[in-house]
């Protein structure tokens, strides 16, 4: 299931996935314990990525509410603070959170660009130096189909060329429904990304759901490069 990359302190935990309770700790308190934890995560992740070429990394979790969007956003910030040209993409098309974490709008975004076959780059926002954000945009009725289009593949290829790092936020592998079901979107993204970072919440993680997530990702050739324990 990939190497263990970092244990994040409890203060990193968001009150809920879209809130600013602990959201951008790397901006609000750059000298704090949480920011240092993210810098260690950055170093460990870069060490784990042996391929020197630009990498597109999917950040997801076995189940909902484990803090993956907060981890994705803060990892993007510390990469940009290190001078890396970083793109953070919200591919959680049915339940986006990154625009809330960064305090930006989501009037138009990735889904709108893909549906209209326009240039997604025209919709980039730049909340911080060296960091571009592509929000999710309008909620589509066919999110997994949009992510399987040639337009999205072309967008990802172009982003690999234009940025040092591309971080992709998605929905969790297992839905929050009862009984839980495997979500199509993160599986589609795992097949297209260069690696997968799994975020686990210490209070929620279960061995069965973790193994299910790893198997589902592996079934499409996804590469789990590491795991992060959040809310320890």
Written description of the protein model:
Pfam families: CbiA. GO terms for molecular function: ATP binding; non-membrane spanning protein tyrosine kinase activity. Residues 57-195 form the CobQ/CobB/MinD/ParA nucleotide binding domain. Keywords: ATP-binding, Kinase, Nucleotide-binding, Transferase. This protein is of the alpha/beta class and 232 residues long. The protein has one domain (3-181): P-loop containing nucleotide triphosphate hydrolases (Rossmann fold). Helices cover 37% and strands 19% of the residues. The chain is built from nine helices and eight strands. The protein has helices spanning 25-28, 33-48, 68-81, 98-102, 110-116, 143-147, 150-162, 184-192, 207-219; strands at 3-7, 55-60, 86-90, 125-128, 131-134, 165-169, 195-201, 224-230. The protein has an eight-stranded mixed β-sheet with strand order 1-8-7-2-6-3-5-4, sandwiched between helices. α2 (33-48) packs across α3 (68-81).
List keywords for this structure.
alpha/beta; Rossmann fold; 232 residues; eight-stranded mixed β-sheet
For the largest beta sheet, what order do the strands appear in spatially? 1-8-7-2-6-3-5-4
Tally of contiguous helical segments: 9
CATH topology: Rossmann fold
How does the major sheet shape up?
8 strands, mixed
Q: Could you tell me the radius of gyration in angstroms?
A: 16 Å
Unreliable stretches (pLDDT < 50, length at least 5) are 10-22
How far do the termini sit from each other?
A: 19 Å
The run of helices and strands is EHHEHEHHEEHHEHEHE
**CATH classification class:** Alpha Beta
User: Roughly what is the average pLDDT, rounded to an integer?
Assistant: 87
């Amino acid at each position: 299931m990939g190497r263990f990359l970092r244990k994040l302190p409890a203060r990193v935990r968001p009150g809920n996935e879209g809130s600013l309770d602990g959201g951008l700790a790397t901006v609000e308190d750059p000298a704090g314990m949480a920011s240092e934890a993210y810098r260690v995560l950055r170093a460990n992740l870069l060490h784990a990525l042996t391929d020197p070429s630009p990498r597109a990394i999917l950040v997801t979790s076995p189940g909902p509410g484990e803090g993956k969007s907060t981890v994705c956003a803060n990892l993007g910030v510390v990469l940009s603070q290190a001078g890396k040209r970083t793109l953070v993409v919200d591919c959680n098309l049915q339940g986006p959170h990154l625009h809330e974490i960064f305090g930006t709008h989501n009037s138009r975004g990735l889904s709108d660009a893909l549906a209209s076959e326009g240039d997604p780059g025209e919709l980039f926002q730049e909340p911080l130096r060296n960091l571009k954000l592509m929000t999710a945009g309008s909620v589509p009725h066919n999110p997994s189909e949009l992510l399987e289009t040639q337009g999205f593949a072309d967008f990802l290829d172009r982003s690999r060329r234009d940025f040092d790092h591309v971080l992709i936020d998605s929905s969790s592998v297992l839905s929050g429904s009862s009984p839980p079901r495997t979500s199509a979107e993160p599986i589609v993204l795992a097949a297209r990304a260069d690696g997968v970072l799994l975020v686990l919440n210490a209070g929620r993680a279960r061995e069965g759901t973790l193994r299910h997530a790893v198997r589902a990702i592996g079934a499409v050739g996804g590469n789990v490069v590491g795991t992060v324990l959040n809310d320890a």
